[in-house]
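User: As part of a screening pipeline, I want to sanity-check one entry by hand. Below is the sequence and the SMILES for calcium ion. Please return the complex as structure tokens so I can compare it with the automated output.
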Amino acid sequence: MRIVSARVLALCCSAVIFGNSAADAAVLALKAVKKNGGAIAPTSNLTVVAGDTIEADILVSGWGAELPLGARGVQSALLGVSGFYQCDDEMFCMGANGNILPLGWKGPREPIECPGPNSCVGGTTPGNPCTTNANCLGGGTCTGPSAACLAANPNFPTCTQVYHTCASAGHNPILGAKIDVNRPDYIFNGQSVNLVMDDRTLNYRYFSLIEDRIGIPDTGVPKYVGTLSVQVSNHACGPFEIGFQGGPSSFIQDPSQKNTRVFPTSSPLILTVSPCNIQLIDCSPGPVLSPSSPEHCDIDARIPHGPQLPFPRLTTNQMVMRYDRSAAGTLSTDYDVALFGPPGLPPPGVTGALVSGNEVTVSLAQRIFPLYWTCIRDKRVDLRCCMASLPADVEDLPPVPPDPPTIVSQFSDVFAILHNLQGVTVPPLPPQRCDIDRSQLCTGADLLMTGDLLVGADGFAHPDNGGAAEPAGTGPYNGDSLPPLCPDQAP
Ligand SMILES: [Ca+2]
Ligand SMILES: [Ca+2]
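Assistant: Here is the complex for your manual check:
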């Protein structure tokens, strides 16, 4: 108890402001009470495995000294955006990673706002919602920032009709949260209350307010104010700490005319995933007919075919996946493939999964198509590894916030080749970004090849592959683009 008091004094301003002893300060706690539907002893520290569903109670206690008139309203706001995900980096999140998301949450981690009239993803700004799926995909009235829209898609292409936010189909976040006013231990049980359950973002917010101007005394027993239900993802591993936002997002208020509030300290719920399922820790496109291939999420700017022939295509058809342990037993059916680019082209099938120690080389029935992201997903861990071919796209322009990088084959790419040849570019461009003609050297010929690709003088632009399906068009690559899919790797 002494240790807890010291911590409260050090961290919480409310105890100082209101002049109460820290031991009497109000506390918000999140405690697991059910695991896979079965009741467990309430705990703030629980070991779980992938697939587990956990129900947790939000409890408030200790408001008596700070609010002698009792509690009339209480609000608890989760630190969900950080708590439900373990890795700070939204990129591929290799290694210990994953998420523990509320049941029914199929939206993005954080909303991405468009500066235009429609919000592409999230829609948390009042008056800035999506109204159609086209808004989520960068169409409709969400025109100016379409690149930003695409950055978060195609993972979240559906405009939900509840909050007009963009998410995956079936997004139903209310499944993960509720305030059960009929529970005997509900703080305002028996009172007529106004409720707000805000599940627009992962920072779920629970608010209860007694309609009458009365206060409920603190009896020294923690009281229930809300429920959170979460599920552990297949690739989750290690500890996750789900806590609360501080004041003013989380507070307790009394019934006085002054509307006095205190800001509780918080006791988070720690869920530790152990043992972990197999972890995908790295991946890169496999060997191709040229000596080098792009990294995962990099873009191959080389001609997709040989220097003199329109086919066969020379892009890669393999991805090497590296795991934290032996990959023995991995099958080709553990993977699926998705294409992100112009609609209409079916993704190639997986034809093989060659296991060697901790590595698996996944092979596709087709070499990757120009103008598409080709993403191979390990269904067991629900993570994607992506590769793309965009001929002549030597460099991607840096983002102008809030827009993502501009991934376009355009005339400025010729200068990028030139600067690289002059030694101005640091570090130098990798082969897949400078050996545009696939001669295995980066020379002035690649500058000419880039220009040819952009004006259509290549002659083999958008080649077919001996009859395999390709996007329509045989013109120049100038202005062709890819959605900035990476680093957004949300499954
Ligand atoms: Ca470019
Ligand atoms: Ca070359």
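Points to compare against the pipeline: Residues 108 and 167 are 7 Å apart (CA to CA). Residues 435, 437, 439, 441-443, 445-446 surround calcium ion (ligand 2) (CB under 6 Å).
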